[in-house]
Write a structure and sequence with these properties.
Layout lengths: L1 H10 L1 E3 L2 E4 L8 H13 L6
Antiparallel strand pairs: 1-2
The structure holds protoporphyrin IX containing FE.
Protoporphyrin IX containing FE (HEM) binds next to helix 1, strand 1, strand 2 and helix 2.
Length: 48
């Protein structure tokens, strides 16, 4: 799950040649990416 998350954030998400999400490699520092993930986890309604 962590590998999936960090891969999507670094490389972005493209489908059929269209960028659905821009790559954040070199834009967000590692600490910022994990801070966003930790924040999202505090908002989760049900545990995984
Ligand atoms: C301008 C900011 C952003 C935009 C426009 C954006 C947009 C999107 C979109 C449209 C998708 C779905 C792609 C699809 O349908 O396949 C997506 C997926 C995802 N985004 Fe973003 N995103 C942004 C920022 C971020 C940030 C800051 C993070 C985390 C730090 C993040 C993490 C993810 C992850 C992990 C997925 C994959 C989710 C999955 O496939 O289950 N995104 N993003």
């Amino acid at each position: 799950m962590d590998g999936f998350f960090v891969g999507k954030v670094r490389r972005g998400v493209t489908r059929n040649g269209a960028a659905y999400m821009p790559p954040f490699d070199g834009i967000l520092q590692q600490e910022a990416v994990w801070a966003i993930k930790s924040y999202l986890e505090t908002r989760r309604e049900k545990p995984l």
